[in-house]
Amino acid sequence: MSLLQKGMAALSNKNSRLKQLYPAVNELETPFPTCWSHKDKHEFIGLSEDGLTINYKGLGKIPKDAASIRTNYPIPPSCGIYYFEVKIISKGRDGYMGIGLSGADVSNNRLPGWENNSYGYHGDDGHSFSCSGHGEPYGPTFTTNDVIGCCVNLIDGTCFFTKNGVNLGAAFKNISYGMYPTVGLQTPGEIVQANFGKEPFLFDIEDYMQEYKVAVETQIGGMSLEQNNDLWQAILNRIVSSYLVHYGYSATAESFAKDTGQEYWAEELASIKNRQRIQKLVLGGNIGEAISVTQELYPGLLESRPNLFFVLKCRQFVEMVNGTDTEIQSKKGKRCISSHSSAKSSPCVSPYSYKSSRNTSAANSPHRPSMGSPLSTHSNGAVAAHSSDVTPNGTSVFNGSVPMSTANGTVNVSEVNGNSHAAGDGGDSMNDNMDVDLPRSHVSHIQSTSEINLIKILQFGKELKSMNTMLSETRGTNEENDLMLEGIFSLLAYSDPWNSPIGSQLDPLQREPVCAALNSAILEIHGLPPLPVLETILGQTKQTLAEMTKAGIGASAFAQLTNFIHVETAQSNT
């Protein structure tokens, strides 16, 4: 591994540590404090190039010579609990140092705690200062080589400090959100270095957070629905039923409806079977056939949704490149996958996902485009799995480039895993006998493509280009469509696309967003909801929690949906 790669890996690990500490924070909306601000500081403060180490440059003769600095961003309210540490590199002449918090409006020529809307713990006397020049006895003094931590608890509005990893107890109450980590210095030679979470802390902040996480989850789990229990149960049954129907679990949905005494659903069984058939084709990589069947069963659907049609065609190009689309599919060596995973996976979920050393580098590549998901959430709280005009930017289906499939060869997943599973014949086993593609280990991708097939692929690419041009002329220029074409066409430039910078597009799971979008479009023309109620509820709940954290309701940071919902995914080769 090169030095550049090692550096990028280290940076990624540091950023992932912050995400682990504060999973509820949306960095695009409320970035983490990562360093001291080069702008929001007094002129007597010197700042290192990395923005973490500061030193005092003034005369330090009188209190007015004090100087402070704030971080580049305030503490995100969605942290719930936030913590940072400061190491005293040198106490300087007198050690008149203050560590704490301040608002954006507080003067930088005072130590933290001396002004309104600021709080500080001072090293020379161990006193705490809360919006006043008069301190209160709090903790021990601190000096060179000590590490002082500051924790803001937005759940109960308190703040405490630590010294060398030991909690000193509550220092302040009624702390509001919007505060900045702050340090003040006053005498020559004072030098301190900050750690905002990219390196391990001396104090075990994770253990402290865990206590509050458990308390919040216990409170939520303890809520009961004793009143109108029958009504709630009927509503829940309908929610489950609509989800099963939406994703084509017809046999399970029928059985569930009978067991719970519900009326049968609005959609006819034949329509559900048609959707199952199309979904199976998409997830099997037979996009061309899926398009033909869709046009046969639902005339005008794709023509009235040109962006969805374009995405399907782009996907078909990818499947042609990989030899999975019926347009160029070779029957030689074709083997089928057993349905052992279908009971766990949605019909809109690929039955198999490959993992191997071949795609490791691509998966970890910094150039890897983000991948769409049929359950990615809109800003309005709804869960994206549909749109009349699907776009690849995450606004409806995709969060990045057009999804790509895997390579040419196919195998039986039971053989790969070393297990034997008989294919089921139930109404829900729509993944039975589905062809699934895995990357080949030694054969060059381009070299293995026959000249006839390559001509077909290139011709199809020209047709895609023309289709994009027509869309631009009739609906205006679409930058995302241009990038989509560039991404899929670029695969032909690599002899081994799986280990290329765009190799992440080859994951077969990328078929799922296309499947979900097409499924939702079919439901729309039947006058049925394009999303199951369950996903809408989850999306709205997620958005509600996000709004609560923005409003400074600290406990919502520990009320993550993933802590309460356990999703089983399809088995994959590891």
How is this structure best described in words?
The protein has helices at 3-21, 205-221, 229-246, 250-259, 269-283, 287-297, 306-322, 360-363, 413-417, 451-475, 479-490, 511-525, 533-550; strands spanning 36-41, 45-47, 53-56, 67-71, 81-91, 98-102, 118-122, 127-130, 136-137, 147-153, 158-163, 166-172, 180-185, 190-195, 376-377, 383-384. The protein has 574 residues and is α+β, with helices and mostly antiparallel strands. The strands form three sheets. It has a seven-stranded antiparallel beta sheet, with no helix packed on it. A hairpin with a 5-residue loop joins β15 and β16. α3 (229-246) packs antiparallel against α4, α7 (306-322) runs parallel beside α11 and α7 packs antiparallel against α12 (511-525). The two termini are 23 Å apart.
List the main descriptive attributes of the protein structure presented here.
574 residues, alpha+beta, seven-stranded antiparallel beta sheet, 13 helices
Topology (elements, then pairings):
Layout: H1 3-21, E1 36-41, E2 45-47, E3 53-56, E4 67-71, E5 81-91, E6 98-102, E7 118-122, E8 127-130, E9 136-137, E10 147-153, E11 158-163, E12 166-172, E13 180-185, E14 190-195, H2 205-221, H3 229-246, H4 250-259, H5 269-283, H6 287-297, H7 306-322, H8 360-363, E15 376-377, E16 383-384, H9 413-417, H10 451-475, H11 479-490, H12 511-525, H13 533-550
Antiparallel strand pairs: 1-4, 2-3, 3-14, 4-13, 5-10, 5-14, 6-7, 6-13, 7-8, 8-9, 10-11, 11-12, 15-16
